[in-house]
TrEMBL record:
The lineage of its organism: Eukaryota, Fungi, Dikarya, Ascomycota, Taphrinomycotina. Belongs to the ATPase epsilon chain family. It comes from Pneumocystis jirovecii (strain RU7). It is found in: Mitochondrion inner membrane. The keyword Transit peptide applies. The keyword Transit peptide applies. Gene3D superfamilies: 6.10.140.880, F0F1 ATP synthase delta/epsilon subunit, N-terminal. Residues 40-104 form the ATP synthase F1 complex delta/epsilon subunit N-terminal domain. Keywords: ATP synthesis, CF(1), Hydrogen ion transport, Ion transport, Membrane, Mitochondrion, Mitochondrion inner membrane, Transit peptide, Transport. CDD domains: F1-ATPase_delta (cd12152). This is ATP synthase subunit delta, mitochondrial. GO terms for cellular component: mitochondrial inner membrane; proton-transporting ATP synthase complex. Transmembrane segments: none annotated.
């Protein structure tokens, strides 16, 4: 038995499977900025860019995230992600859902399914689409059509409130 154990250890050491851990030291962290990565499946809106604050629509409620925020994982509901850049400019994006991950060291990763600038929407168009979805829900559509329309209503109502 000892021969097998010795042979396995030698194999693992020579192949690099067993590595001894080494101590890592903390990096210097900015106390007033957040390193934001905001990505979509098809695009990256912010790539490790320092910002002052990010406001997100979490399922637990709206949250403002500043530097040195406690680490957490938040599910996003449809709503506005407000990114306040270092120069004070606020960029607002409507997201349909996703996750925000606050990591130690003032790092924030937002992964959203879709995100669009609020400037891309008009209140009139959103109201029209909302009425169409409400007609489907109250009409004689299939179960699948009604389920999709209910999701559209949730998203469009949130978007309409954001545009007011």
């Amino acid at each position: 038995m000892s021969l097998i154990r010795t042979s396995v250890r030698q194999f693992l050491h020579t192949r690099g499977f067993l590595r001894f851990s080494s101590r890592g030291y903390a990096k210097e962290v900015s106390t007033d900025k957040i390193c934001l990565t905001f990505s979509l499946p098809h695009n990256v809106l912010y790539n490790a860019q320092n910002v002052t604050q990010v406001n997100i629509p979490a399922t637990s409620g709206n949250m403002g995230i500043l530097a040195l925020h406690v680490p957490s994982i938040e599910q996003l509901r449809p709503g506005i992600v407000d990114v306040i850049e270092e120069n004070g400019i606020s960029n607002k994006f409507f997201v349909s859902g996703g996750f925000a991950i606050v990591q130690p060291g003032s790092s924030l990763c937002i992964n959203a399914i879709e995100a669009y600038s609020l400037d891309d929407f008009s209140l009139e168009t959103v109201s029209e689409k909302l009425q169409e979805a409400q007609k489907i829900v109250s009409g004689n559509g299939s179960e699948e059509d009604i389920a999709e329309a209910k999701i559209q209503i949730e998203v469009l109502e949130s978007l309409r409130e954001s545009l007011k």
